[in-house]
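Troubleshooting: if your tokenizer reports a length mismatch, compare your output against this known-good record of 80 residues.
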Amino acid sequence: MGEWISVKDRLPDDCSEVLVICKWDNSPLIAFNDGMDWIEKCDNLEIIGDSDYNTIIHEVGAENIGYEITHWMPLPELPK
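Known-good structure output:
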């Protein structure tokens, strides 16, 4: 697996989903960055009929709102 990349150094390209770390509790999440916000894709909401629902988890440039994302890394390849 790769190294953690600070969001101060660079952000992921192309809105690709990556593994992120949150400042306040060091909890990992899978999210993507759209250039403005970090967004967690919530695929597990099919049970309520909205499988395309996304949740903004951190507004870029806004301190202390939701989960403050500090680092990210590409997702590993899926097992074969």
